[in-house]
Amino acid sequence: MPERKVLVITGASSGIGRALALRAASMGHAVIAVSRERAELEHVCHEIVDDGGTCVPVVTDVTQADAPARIVTAAQTRFGRIDVIVNLAGAATSGLLLEQTDAQIDGQWQLHVAAPLRITRAAFPLLRESGGQVMFVGSGLRRVPAPYYGAYCAAKAAVETLAQQLRRELLGTGVAVTFVDPGSVRTNFAKNAGIPAYGPSWVPVDPDVVAKRIMGAIERRPWRLLAVPWHTLGAILGEWFPHAADKGVTPPMPASHSHAEASPSHAEVSKHPEESKGIEESKGPAISSHAEVSKHPEESKGTEESHGTTNGAPTFHSALEPIARRLERVRLSPEFLASLLQPGSDVHLSEAAMRWAGMPNKNERAAMAEALDALTAGGFLERTGEESWRVVRSAQ
User: Fold this and answer.
1) How far is CA 63 from CA 81, 108, 354, 387, in A?
2) Would the pLDDT of 192 be above 50?
């Protein structure tokens, strides 16, 4: 049995972070699980504790100023140490790079670069005392950037430089720094970013595959971990043959990211191109109580949408009517909210707010919450947690 370690894992409520938290706990390690998604995080921790493991949840947005201190305090209070930090919190905002708002660009930098550095800085005294390790997680898109991921690719490229710089600066301190290239992983990352999935479905690996490799790297303490080597090889070939990569990495163009329709004030959420054929975008205000929702052409022939009820149920627009002026003031468009309504999918407040505003302030987050509550009252959403919903009806 390996020595019990105390692991801080950000982004622990889903994807690789969740898989890593479960695997680390099953191996006898203590986990400080960090996420802004309270309900999902508590579910992960309950699962760990029910299996006899140790998990301390820290509900926080890692980009908040007090997040590093809260994380370190939780670890010091409960365990008196930190052995490993794995910076897995991440999300992408969709949009062509020149369409990204200042908030979206800054949000990607804060989430992927600045926040991990601040957490490491706050935890360094404990890491030095334990001879610990910090892991920074990059992306294959840092090598071969893909359109519609906007500032995400540039931020992930900076993560690699950050890890290399910090590794050199900490030589002789006893603290190891590892850069992790996770490869392509089967998560809701692209979906949450509003970017259509593309590429062969067999390429992405299960999150637990990467979690297992990360646990191995905690024992070996390498300076670099290529979790899925053949994925990395593909990315390297993309660097060597950029013209071939130009064709291979480009997903279907989202309708809202056409250069001709670019909005300088706010990047729209990506939609699959088939959903936008035959649609003429409004050239007027970003939102009004009568703004039309994009419809598939076959569904809109010979029909006129009612703003009252459909078969006794409120229509999309009538559900939003009571807060239309509020949404107009913050430029939260019906088109964006409609794009969230994919029946059977889940909507999380923080993820939806980040997709819309990049790094939302309190007012923007509150407006998003009001909109989701209105759609819940209208029967489009069903609440599944404090900040999570299941989509039960589309906007059409």
Assistant:
1) 22, 10, 12, 18
2) yes
Q: What is the pTM of this model?
A: 0.62
Tell the residue number behind the tokens 């893909």, with chain if given.
146
- Residue 208 is predicted with a pLDDT of 87
DSSP-derived secondary structure letter, 4: P
- Give the CA distances from residue 304 to residues 120, 145, 173, 259, in Å, rounded to whole numbers and listed in that order: 56, 42, 69, 29
CA–CA separation, 57 vs 339, rounded Å? 31
Choice between 95 and 304, residue whose per-residue pLDDT is larger: 95
**Could you tell me which of 326, 178, 335, 349 has the C-alpha nearest to residue 263?**
335
Residues 6+ apart with CB under 8 A from 129: 81
One-letter amino acid of 343:
P
Q: Determine the pLDDT at residue 292.
A: 33
Percentage of the chain exceeding pLDDT 70: 70
Per-residue b or e along 141-175, where b marks 16 or more CB atoms closer than 10 Å to that residue's CB: bbbbbbbbbbbbbbbbbbbbebbeebbeebeeeeb
List all residues 6 or more positions away from 345 whose beta carbon is below 8 Å from its beta carbon: 191, 390, 391
Residue 235 to residue 32: CA distance in whole angstroms: 33
Q: Tell me the sheet residues that pair with 183.
A: none
Question: Residue 59 is which amino acid?
Answer: V
- Cβ-based neighbour number of residue 298 at 10 Å: 8
Give 215-230 pLDDT, tens digit per residue. 999 999 999 888 765 5
What DSSP string runs through 33-88?
EEES-HHHHHHHHHHHHHTT-EEEEEE--TTSTTHHHHHHHHHHHHTS---EEEE-
| Whole-number average pLDDT of the chain | 78
Q: How confident is the model over 257-280, as pLDDT tens digits?
A: 433 333 333 333 333 333 333 323
As annotated, the active-site residues are: 152
Helices (H), ranges, 271-361: 297-300, 316-320, 324-330, 334-340, 349-357
